[in-house]
Amino acid sequence: MTIPPEHSTRLLVAGVGNIFLADDAFGPEVLRALAARPLPAGVPARDYGIRGMDLAYALLDGCDTAVLVDAAPRGHRPGTLSLIEAERPGAEAHTAPPEAHGMDPARVLALAAHLGDGPLPRVLVLACEPETVPRGDEDIMPGLSAPVREAVDRAVDALHAMVPVLLADPAATPSLGRPDESAPPLAAALPTPAADAAEDR
Fold first, then answer.
1. Residue 100 — φ and ψ, nearest 5°?
2. What are the respective helix, strand and coil percentages of the chain, to the nearest 5?
3. E strand segments, 4-54
């Protein structure tokens, strides 16, 4: 499917995460799977890994909407997919340079706000609940856990369903397509849920 120029919304799909840190590799693995099932022509899908500076500049390069694919602990069953709407950084993001290294999406948005002088794009995060995350004394843990591995193809399906909706209306709130995987978009930059807020979906 080719996007007619008049309907182009400068949509970016970005995989983020560290391929050496267990389920944190979810985003890069989804982008690898997209190579076999590409999105419509004109919608760039790129694996940014842990290159936070590169992603910050990409967000400033005229894109209207960005979908980040990432692992994010939110208290759900491992492998659960959620859609999160990231809150744009406030004015304080412009007062001091945020961290330029690493790939925390909230910090990347703050970095983009610091580097740019215009409005940031709308940012949605297609998040997967991890099962395996490295402890502080573990530097390398390659390989996804079984439930997160199984979620990779479902995330590709979700992106193929979401992209046409966002191309037609950048302000739309796409559905993930399966109620047990959907969560209402949350106006926050990847919050960490309280211990008593865990919920299976």
1. -95, -5
2. 35, 20, 50
3. 11-16, 45-49
For the beta carbon of residue 58, count every other beta carbon within 10 angstroms. 20
What is the spatial distance between Cα 111 and Cα 104, in angstroms, rounded to a whole number? 10
d(CA 124, CA 131): 22
Alpha carbon 97 to chain centroid distance? 22
Taking a C-beta distance cutoff of 8 angstroms, is the pair 106, 58 a contact?
no
Q: Are 130 and 74 in contact (CB under 8 A)?
A: no
Beta bridge partners of 82: 127
Cβ burial of 137 (10 Å; 0-12, 13-18, 19+) is exposed
**Range scoring the smallest mean pLDDT among 23-27, 103-107, 184-188:** 184-188
pTM over 0.85: no
Nearest alpha-carbon partner for 170 in 134, 136, 121, 113: 121
Residue 137's pLDDT band (cuts 50, 70, 90): low
**Separation in Å, CA 66 to CA 55, 56, 147, 184:** 10, 11, 25, 18
In this structure, what token pair is assigned to residue 193? 């849920």
- What is the maximal distance between C-alpha atoms in the chain? 52
